[in-house]
Amino acid sequence: MFSPQPLWQRQAIPAGILATSVAALGGTLALQFGFDLIPCILCLFQRLLYAVAALLAAIALCLSPPRRRVFVALCGVTFGLNTLVAFYHLGAENHWWSTKTCIFSAEPVLSLAELQLALERPAEAPCDEVQWSLFGLSLSGYNLPASLGLAMFCLVAAKRKTWWRISKNA
Which of 19, 70, 88, 142 is 20 to 30 A from 103 (CA-CA)? Predict the structure, then answer.
């Protein structure tokens, strides 16, 4: 007699991906608002990719196992892209290369109206300056192996059929 695997087994991987992505986003938001760290554009791209992975994992929780597999694989691709962005960001922080998109330019304020406009704009942070580090690694330095590990985990999980298929009970 065939019976499906328990619901928690079939949804454990997408739920884990969702929880990890939400935790990463929550951590970066806590650092931003709790410790006044201003994210640069590459930080925001990395956050966006975590949000995309969270959305894909949430959708995967609502789908049948074959479709869920596709969305877990898409999460793996998303984390792979996040790995590339983290590597690029780490290189910019360590001045391995120059980035034109992350150059911080403070324009001189010439009048009171320009000063008011400058104060109303959100603050911008340069991508090549490390705002926070622990043991010599910045957030992008920690994100690089984390995203790589998550990408590999998702792609291997999507390839394995054992946790997706219906198990046979004796």
Answer: 142
Task: Please indicate, yes or no, if residue 103 is contained in any of the structural domains.
Answer: no
Tens digit of pLDDT for each residue in 67-76?
888 999 999 9
| Position 52 in a domain | yes
Q: How far, in Å, CA of 136 to CA of 44, rounded?
A: 22
Domain with 13 in it: what CATH number? 1.20.1550
The tally of domains found in the chain comes to: 1
Looking at residue 163, what DSSP letter applies? T
Q: Is 25 exposed, middle or buried (0-12, 13-18, 19+ CB in 10 A)?
A: middle
Kindly state whether residue 26 falls inside one of the protein's structural domains: yes
Q: What is the pLDDT of residues 58-106, one digit of tens each?
A: 999 988 877 888 999 999 999 999 999 999 888 888 777 777 656 555 5
Q: Measure Cα distances from 30 to 26, 48, 53, 104, 147 in Å.
A: 6, 16, 19, 24, 19
DSSP H or E run through 138: strand 137-138
* 93 part of a folded domain: yes
CA dihedral (133, 139, 143, 144) positive or negative: negative
